[in-house]
Amino acid sequence: MDCIFCDLKNKKMPAQIIAKNKDFFAIFDINPKAQKHILIISNRHAENFHDYFSKNPENFKSFIEITNSLIEKYSLSESDAGYKIICNSGEKAGQSVNHFHAHLLSGKIGNWQV
Ligand code: 5GP
Ligand code: ZN
User: Fold this and answer.
1) Are 105 and 12 within 8 A, CB to CB?
2) Which of 59, 55, 56 is nearest to 21 (CA)?
3) CA–CA separation, 75 and 8 (whole Å)
4) What is the pLDDT of residue 108?
5) What is the domain-level CATH number for residue 54?
């Protein structure tokens, strides 16, 4: 199966990992839509939010933990810009990589409404 995020996870493609835990890793988005645009990606391949968490609901705790650690690492709670967490699920909802990931976004770029 061809999957960019599995390739990043398996080091078939280079990636600068900014955080990781037993279930997830985080990188900066290659095509940022915000001043800070982080991707939180599951180690295990699953198509989307529901596919991932319906099989491993207990992993929601480690998802929250890595997300909170990134909010703290980049002082997003203190940032005037605030932040958003988005999981696009399905092509029509904007999902382009079919491997579960969340976007953590802070700070506007151009006219893009974060
Ligand atoms: P989606 O559109 O599926 O919600 O989000 C996929 C995101 O992955 C996009 O924002 C896209 O820019 C990002 N992306 C795609 N390929 C790569 C890559 O090879 N490296 C990184 N860092 N980001 C990627
Ligand atoms: Zn994958």
Assistant:
1) no
2) 59
3) 26
4) 85
5) 3.30.428.10
Question: CA nearest 85: which of 47, 52, 50, 36?
Answer: 36
* Boundaries of domain holding 80: 4-113
The first and second tokens of residue 35, run together, are 């001043």
Q: How far is CA 9 from the centre of its chain?
A: 13
Give, for ligand 1, the residue of 4, 8, 48 to mutate: max count of ligand atoms closer than 8 Å to Cβ.
4
Alpha-carbon gap, residue 108 to 114, rounded angstroms = 6
Residue 90: alpha-carbon gap to chain centroid: 15
Please give the tally of structural domains in the chain. 1
| DSSP type of residue 62 | H
Host H or E run for residue 37: strand 34-42
Per-residue tokens: 113: 């409404």
Distance 3 CA to ligand 2 centre (A): 5
SS3 108: strand
- For the segment 85-105, the average pLDDT, to the nearest whole number, is 96
pTM exceeds 0.85, yes or no: yes
